Amino acid sequence: GKSSLLNAITRQQVSIVAPDAGTTTDPVEKPMELLPLGPVLFIDTAGLDDVGALGELRVKKTLEAFDRTDLAILVAEGGQWGEFEEQILAELASRQTPVVVAFNKADLAEPPPDRLKALRARACPSVRTCAKEGQGLQELREALIAAAPEGFIENPAIVGDLVGPGELAVLVVPIDKAAPKGRLILPQVQAIRDLLDSDAMCLVVKERELRAGLARLVRPPKLVVTDSQAFLKVAADTPAEVPLTSFSILFSRFKGDLVAQVEGALAIDDLKAGDRVLIA
Amino acid sequence: GKSSLLNAITRQQVSIVAPDAGTTTDPVEKPMELLPLGPVLFIDTAGLDDVGALGELRVKKTLEAFDRTDLAILVAEGGQWGEFEEQILAELASRQTPVVVAFNKADLAEPPPDRLKALRARACPSVRTCAKEGQGLQELREALIAAAPEGFIENPAIVGDLVGPGELAVLVVPIDKAAPKGRLILPQVQAIRDLLDSDAMCLVVKERELRAGLARLVRPPKLVVTDSQAFLKVAADTPAEVPLTSFSILFSRFKGDLVAQVEGALAIDDLKAGDRVLIA
């Protein structure tokens, strides 16, 4: 049931579907784009009612997958709902993970009305699907988007707000031996995209070409962003009046609490010999 | 055996490892970076000697995985080599897929000398590994890199050769609703990286900001590259003396036979009513 539904949502054959229950052993991971959420990783797990030595291993793997889950789909087969489904729902509730219940194989049986009522009482959304016939998939996608944690749809800006529409940032991207072949690392790509989303533009250069790049501009950029490893060289080549920062600082602001971090850094000056520091 | 070795190479726990043979059902896929090859996808398959209804499905999945394999690791357990290993080697040979044989569990048994001799006679490289102890992994990585098809290490340029060191290209990247959230599509990222690898630089803009971007430059760029969907608008905003192309054309040159494609396009003019066209 689960595997068929995952195949239908991702429109790909991602795992073996056999008529026997219990075919899934390893959690099968399937990355896909679910707009407007963005990149998501579907993890198709085994259940929690597995027995035997291999069964225990499967249950452990399933619970590990639960720990990594931001949003769960509980697949219940048509009319069936029992201890097993309640156990999964309880596990997810203890983790405060939002859940969408999919009553799959809706062509074979209707979900029990008392169960639908109980789910509504818990504010747990449910949809009827039939993976085989391709029914209810759009409803399921919409329910997932509605149930997703808020931050998953609207993200704060990475750098675009510091540059502004029609303005230009210079991104300094050193290429070292550890760089992935033929591509850029994700924070660099995200910064470029964020600038474009803000109607800004960017000049992308290696640290060695920064001087030549700045010389190509009619007027200085609004901001220079560099990889931390090139900070000193880039600082030397950046005009004093142009603000300079690093991808690390931008992503500290994006993902963390930059103000607290700056206060923490400033507090270092007040430390006296023998003070104890908690680094958490 | 195979799963342990895959975990050791990828330094991650990617699939259930149980003491019983036959634990692997679905081929487990693990993307990783294997420099200097670049991004690779490891596919951990079941064997070819599986029996029963589910067994047949596994064999089918394994053969499908073989079809997608550019480079194979045949994992033989220490001293063991038989019909099974020969069958896999024959399957791979029929596909002209390069193979590296890993004699795993080398702590338990030595590979049979006549087998090593036979593999050498076929010019098939082999290494001894012990996934548990972490032995032979570096040798295995090196053997894989040596056995990889030539084009996997050195790639032709995408765009850098058209721009040149110290020069600048403008990349026009429209953002439509189908774009992946918060990122760029791979050909755009690859073009940026290729320019940096060629000591060139690039200005990245949306089609709406192209005019403003060009106005920021002291002198015109060496090349403008646009997404095909914006070609007409970009052509109107690009100075007549600046060459203009699209990501699609660049990647036709990179991955295909651009000259043949251009000749094909030119041949359209010679077609007469009733001519038959083979589109292959």
Task: Provide key terms for this protein.
16% strand; Rossmann fold; alpha/beta; homodimer; 280 residues; four-stranded parallel sheet
Describe the structure.
The structure is a homodimer of 280-residue chains. Chain A has 280 residues and is α/β, with parallel strands linked by helices. Chain A folds into two domains: 2-152, P-loop containing nucleotide triphosphate hydrolases (Rossmann fold, 3-Layer(aba) Sandwich); 160-270, Rossmann fold. In chain A, 38% of the residues lie in helices and 16% in strands. Chain A has helices spanning 2-10, 52-67, 83-94, 113-121, 137-147, 160-163, 186-197, 210-215, 231-237, 247-255, 258-267, and strands at residues 28-34, 38-44, 72-77, 99-104, 126-128, 168-172, 201-205, 223-226, 244-246. In chain A, the strands form three sheets. Chain A has a four-stranded parallel beta sheet with strand order 7-6-8-9, with helices on both faces. A three-stranded parallel beta sheet of chain A has the order 3-4-5, with helices on both faces. In chain A, helix 7 links the parallel strand 6 and strand 7. The interface between A and B is large, with 58 and 58 residues.
Topology, pairings included?
The structure is a homodimer of 280-residue chains.
Chain A: H1 2-10, E1 28-34, E2 38-44, H2 52-67, E3 72-77, H3 83-94, E4 99-104, H4 113-121, E5 126-128, H5 137-147, H6 160-163, E6 168-172, H7 186-197, E7 201-205, H8 210-215, E8 223-226, H9 231-237, E9 244-246, H10 247-255, H11 258-267
Parallel strand pairs in A: 3-4, 4-5, 6-7, 6-8, 8-9
Antiparallel strand pairs in A: 1-2
